[in-house]
Amino acid sequence: MIRIFYRVLFVMFILAGLRAAAQSSTDVALWLVDSELTSSSVVDEGDVIEFDFDEEVGYGLSFNHFWTNAFSTELALQKYSADMTIGSNLGPAFIAGELRVTTVTAMAQWHFNRDGRFSPYVGGGIARVGGDFEFASGLLEPGDEESVEMESETTWTAAVGANVRLTEHLALTGEMKGIPWDAREEGGLPEDEIAVDPVTFAVGVRFRF
Description:
Elements (H helix, E strand, L loop, with lengths): L1 H22 L1 E12 L3 E5 L2 E20 L4 E18 L2 E21 L6 E18 L11 E19 L4 E9 L3 E2 L10 E2 L3 E10 L1
Antiparallel strand pairs: 1-3, 1-11, 2-3, 3-4, 4-5, 5-6, 6-7, 7-8, 8-11, 9-10
């Protein structure tokens, strides 16, 4: 009787493993990434200094593995940039330089209607965000550094997106992702932080294996 029990249990494990293998798959996606960075202002000895951004399109790459038909984990890289404009009540605004952002995110995703042509999903996880700032050439003097590294930060991230299946192995995809980030120069003081909090809007192509 005990042998029969163990045999049945063994068969159940085999069937469960086969079912998981049948449901699992892996995809790689290439993205075009647009962003929206938060405008902010600070008050310095009564003067109001405003920071604004003119965003440029970047790119991304992601690797996503499905453990079940509805649950996956994703590792993604995004790189994008924006010209930073500084204005104040003392004079006209000017372009201070270019902020280049790099993010790496590790996220758990929940997918709905994955067997259908249109499959939305939501996700959440952790992010590592950093980058560098290149000063506008007109502001530099001989001997000045052309760029500075930004302090990298580990924070959280959340996303919502959808896949539109074209074939069994090819899909179009779109996603909105948010990452809180207070940017400052590497080694800088917390009071020098500027709230950037990038939200990205990405479209791409997924290749499923």
